[in-house]
Amino acid sequence: xxxxxxxxxxxxxxxxxxxxxxxxxxxxxxxxxxxxxxxxxxxxxxxxxxxxxxxxxxxxxxxxxxxxxxxxxxxxxxxxxxxxxxxxxxxxxxxxxxxxxxxxxxxxxxxxxxxxxxxxxxxxxxxxxxxxxxxxxxxxxxxxxxxxxxxxxxxxxxxxxxxxxxxxxxxxxxxxxxxxxxxxxxxxxxxxxxxxxxxxxxxxxxxxxxxxxxxxxxxxxxxxxxxxxxxxxxxxxxxxxxxxxxxxxxxxxxxxxxxxxxxxxxxxxxxxxxxxxxxxxxxxxxxxxxxxxxxxxxxxxxxxxxxxxxxxxxxxxxxxxxxxxxxxxxxxxxxxxxxxxxxxxxxxxxxxxxxxxxxxxxxxxxxxxxxxxxxxxxxxxxxxxxxxxxxxxxxxxxxxxxxxxxxxxxxxxxxxxxxxxxxxxxxxxxxxxxxxxxxxxxxxxxxxxxxxxxxxxxxxxxxxxxxxxxxxxxxxxxxxxxxxxxxxxxxxxxxxxxxxxxxxxxxxxxxxxxxxxxxxxxxxxxxxxxxxxxxxxxxxxxxxxxxxxxxxxxxxxxxxxxxxxxxxxxxxxxxxxxxxxxxxxxxxxxxxxxxxxxxxxxxxxxxxxxxxxxxxxxxxxxxxxxxxxxxxxxxxxxxxxxxxxxxxxxxxxxxxxxxxxxxxxxxxxxxxxxxxxxxxxxxxxxxxxxxxxxxxxxxxxxxxxxxxxxxxxxxxxxxxxxxxxxxxxxxxxxxxxxx
Length: 739
Description:
InterPro entries: ClpP/crotonase-like_dom_sf (IPR029045), Tail-specific_protease (IPR005151). The chain contains 20 helices and 38 strands.
């Protein structure tokens, strides 16, 4: 028979004899199994033994462990990033992985983390039992019909599952018996404004921050008709939400604790299910104006005595329950917990390779992107399936080289459709040399734009690599090339043609249609560059002296002074061509301010913000910029863009197009803008991804769309062989004719 059922039968029997005072004492004794006044509880050190697990999850175990590890890594109070990551490596080393066993061993190796068997229990309907002046409340779903004659509320927290809806059920319970809001403790937690760059705090990508701060929690609302005294029934184990509820109410002196002491660390933890078990992760430190809450909150009426005659007198019990306010919790008698959450920068770890390192890297990257990648609603959410796919690849072929790990991480990143999704292996040996050419995409093929190799000519299409057809080679490389648009995906893939590990035979088809094979020796340096290396000036050589041209590529234009000099020279020109087919080398905001003669807006910058675990928002910013003069240009303009116009180049272009300042000619840009973050992974790998959502100035989607030309123009192999620039020539024609 349940305690609640015994309470009802016992209370009803006593009520018939009118013995209300004895009934109150007996009811509390029945609920606690015998009790005494407050006494010292067990140590707060072994808090894991006093927590109740939550339900299982339908997520595959690797996906669920990724979420759990992300909580430990980004919000946990215990281990450093590196310690948590290396613990993950250790439990994933041998395959195939037993994920339940791995979860247990992972938790056992880390402070602030517990492994528990998951529970199948769900939250039942709320129940209220009236026993004389007592209203005994079992929190649950639905409303609470509180008896009008109730004079004392007893809220039963024992054996409540850490199930969805529990926090709301507890809030309803205290709300129904209160006429004034009930304060809750604040929590010191780790905040993330974006994901702080882990490679270097001094890096160019360090615009995101990670810090520890105190987060206030709104008080429990009050909806009751009367302010009733409250007793909380606590058992030897509590669900984290129930423990937090108990700590809040007892520290606020709003309720008495009846039963067992409450471990504050349980109240500060979050349940993360993994397969048949799960982990509790301590993610906060509860505090009030006096500082951290004690590690152990003793029961006011507790366990320890077996006989009813050991209870305090009926009069004393009635006075405490019906009239009194609990005394402040003794902050000196309880053991304190470990330190509050802290920002822990990653440490440099050895550059190694193993199956455990590869599996852990994939799980960590999955967890980080799940928390911080902002474009799932745009590109679709395929990362769970890709994690399972890449982990299966490790099982099929054990990892012994860093190159294997890098390829697996690149394969994972490809599903993000993110043009910033690169993976690097710092310290890895460089290639033997490089294919000394600049490649361009023409009709889906890599074609030579410029060449430092005597036997390889501009306009040659690459048809094979060491006998492998280019179509097959491209399919392999594009499967691990992250990009938001097809043109940029092709560009990312063909960059890998440039790194040579020895003499390589390329099949080449000339503009005459003949195919030949050239054995290329690795060159000592890579050849790079935008579509055009033309410098700023008038276009008289192309028959348009009245027009001017400025190439924004960093290989051509490197300083603000050079830009201003070029703009000064363009004064009086009847039209200006701004070439943004490369990556800019100057401050593009100041450049835009000199090209847009009116007040204009930047794109919308939307950053993922976590104010502790479970508190997520997208923080949005947009800025108005004023024009700059001396020099400036207000005449007609054409903007040239292409597949390599990415990130900062697109940000510049978004301002010009948003202000309706330019006609765009060329090919669609990369469709990838926003600040990047870098994630350090085991084996000394570095993964990058976009950590900011960008919207056009009219709030329309940009990612995967990019800058779309008003007039589309693409080069042919013949154009490349002859040095013709069809985009520039089309820009001249437009500025002259308006068509």
